[in-house]
Design brief:
single chain; alpha+beta; 3-stranded antiparallel beta sheet; 21% helix
Length: 151
């Protein structure tokens, strides 16, 4: 929107001159709050991406591409030296959750100590059995089970 198209009427309303051929006529008169609402409607929330690139145009394409040798052949990924380990460029899931939700899943809620992942349970039947067992037999509160250290 061009700043030249916006002006204030004598009664304090905002006058927006619309381009020719617009479906709402030549001008739009709005209350100041309505004008601000419509103007800021398209501003993305903090941390939200509004433009996404895919394929070879992405920030980190899956494989580096080189242009085809001739017009008929498709682009092929560049192969690295054999036996060389692939560098770990992916952020850990805990760090990604911290960026989005600002909560650290690998720190203890009570004492703040760093926790480690012991195992993953992908089978739903095993998860259901563990949840059922914990509901029937809740574990003791080991955090407060001992006496405080003597000074």
């Amino acid at each position: 929107m061009a700043i030249d198209r916006v002006s204030v009427t004598p009664d304090g309303k905002v006058l927006l001159s619309l381009p020719e051929g617009h479906d709402q006529g030549g001008a739009l008169v709005l209350e100041p709050m309505e004008f601000t609402r419509r103007l800021t409607w398209h501003i993305a929330d903090p941390g939200r991406h509004t433009v996404h690139y895919h394929g070879a145009y992405a920030n980190r394409p899956r494989a580096p591409y080189r242009p085809p040798a001739d017009e008929g052949s498709p682009a092929k990924p560049v192969a690295g030296p054999a036996g060389e380990p692939k560098p770990s460029s992916r952020a850990s899931w805990a760090r990604l959750i911290w960026r989005v939700y600002e909560c650290d899943l690998l720190s203890c809620v009570r004492c703040g100590a760093e926790m480690k992942i012991v195992s993953f349970l992908p089978e739903p039947a095993v998860i259901g059995w563990i949840v059922k067992h914990l509901a029937e037999h809740p574990p003791p509160d080991r955090f407060h089970a001992r006496a405080p250290p003597a000074a």
